[in-house]
Sequence to fold (696 residues):
Amino acid sequence: MSDNVTAHSVVEPSSLTKRIAGILVVLYAIITMVPLGWIVLTGFKSPPDSISYPPKIVFDPTLEGYCNLFTTRSRQTAEYLASLPPPSGTCESIARARNLVVVSESKFVPRFWNSVVIAFGSTALAVFLGTLSAYGFSRFRVPLKDDLLFFILSTRMMPPIAVAIPIYLMYRELGLQDTKLGMILLYTAVNVSLAVWLLKGFIDEIPREYEEAAMIDGYSRLQAFRKVVLPQAVTGIAATAIFCLIFAWNEYAFAVLLTSGEAQTAPPFIPIIIGEGGQDWPAVAAGTTLFLVPIVIFTVLLRKHLLRGITFGAVRK
Amino acid sequence: MMREPARTSRRKRLSPRGIAEAAATVVIALGVVMLMQPLSLTLYGWSFPTTLVGTVMFLIGSKLPE
Amino acid sequence: MRFAEKVATVTPAAPARRVRSLSDRTIAWLFIAPTIVLLLAINVFPLIWTVRLSFTNYRANRMNVPLRDVGLQHYNDILTSPDVWAAMQVTARFVIATILIQTVLGFALAWLVDKKFRGHGLWTTVILLPMMLSPAVVGNFWTFLYQPQIGLFNYVVSFFTGIPPSSFQMLGDLTLSPWAIVLVDTWMWTPYVMLICLAGLRSIPDYIYEAAEVDRASKWRQFWTITLPMAAPFIMLAVLFRAIENFKMFDMVNLLTGGGPGSTTEVASITLKREAFEKWRTGYSSAFAIILFVTVFGLANIYVKALNRLKQR
Fold:
């Protein structure tokens, strides 16, 4: 940028303009961060603090929300509590202070684990299938190529509720209802379209000459694909994988309609975390925080490829 | 086999394909507007057929020569 | 593999090439087929089934009732139903409001970020965060922010305006609840519009502005004659995509209001969910699904055309 300052000088904004622009953008960023910050804070509040008026910014941080997220508790009489041995562990003592005892672990961990399995499973499958097809579309003359590519993309744009009706019936027939395998297949189908489009863009950018040279050296087409194209496409494949992961991780509509127990993921589970007398907001906030942390990390990793991802590879910056 | 998409835009609008796609776009847009307008229940009733016709036009139109 | 390589190097060139050109076709087929098969199984087959069901009286919760053909009855019912029409209008108002606000705000932000102030990269990443999050999980938390007495949103509003925080309910009020959803959607998706607009602004070469400066065109004029027209295809793309997405909006509305109060926020997807998974009118909702389907498919055609046009630049 600095090497052609003279060429840019006419259109380079003045430092005052820059400063004002900076202030406005930072202001917007801070405002949009408030809800997220509030989620994190609420996770460390006690239930009374979380619903106090005016809303508390300064409070005694507690792990109660996280404890409530991971456990189920029951209310006990004072005599019974007195008869118990002294509490072991943080969560037990927090519960005792509220005349409760920890009964069992909550379903949060299994639901979170379902999210992990389904997201990673479908991503691996989608990226695998997507890489193969993207290479096929990028390098070979495929009959009806444009139509196939459009068909692949259009499947992603379909309204989830409309798709869920026949999938529900189909899965019921096949016994895939409320199974991880069923959800993995469904998310793979949704993600593979993005994977094909994104990866086709990435593979298009790898010069064909590389493979041709390798093939002249005696590599077969498959070897050239494996040893020349794949290493070159690693960044693209990683970016695509993260996009697929985020979609599968966030997905709610299919999950809420097609899963109820066994295969339920975190998004439909977190909103129904209930404490005594209504929603347990610190626990919900704690669950939300844990759920969002991976995405924040992924977003930072992905920031250079975001634009590509949201335009299906069409705009490459 | 398939024409490269890069060649599509240069002579757009003049080709049968360009005209068909533009017309189909208008028909689809009309159908969507009819579906969601608050003025006439009759228009709303005809919205789905209109969108369907537009979509079919688009699919056929994209097969025409450029 | 080593062995295969050796064989390949030892094999004379001419036959090897013939084998390669033969197998290219096979490879193309082998590489593409699994994806197509998966999509046929998970998307196309169910779609055809939906079309079939849309002509019947099928109910997913009463499978013993004999299947009866009802012809176009469901389509006729839906397309003459004032309730469904009302849901479409709710959807339309939601789509129009969100797109207008997000486009203006997103473009303005992009324009500011494009001034390349110090640290703009970092702040752009911060701004982009909401759009990556789960609309359901975060949308759910907004119901807490919107609580009348204890919610942060009501507190902030009352702090700046003096209106008592318990005097209004963002999610329970007939006039406010649509705006509650618009606000969350805007919070979440303005970054999306911003990112695409930013790409549009950055695609404009500097020499055009330099030429305009030479011609002494005012900044105002430059904006209307250079910036906006040249970024227009990008804005168009963002608008189309957001329109499609919000036309089928489900998760956020389902969690924030569930379509209520009354039916003020009942968008098409919510109506469809009620018909399909609460009233179990599978045949009727299949017809409804097909109507939404065709609409989205038509819009998707336009979107992909816009996408391909940008790709060729």
User: Anything to note?
Assistant: The CA atoms of residues 132 and 196 of chain A lie 8 Å apart. Chain A touches chain C through 111 residues (CB under 8 Å). Confidence is low (pLDDT under 50) at residues 1-8 of chain A. Strands of chain A lie at 71-75, 100-105, 274-275, 278-279.
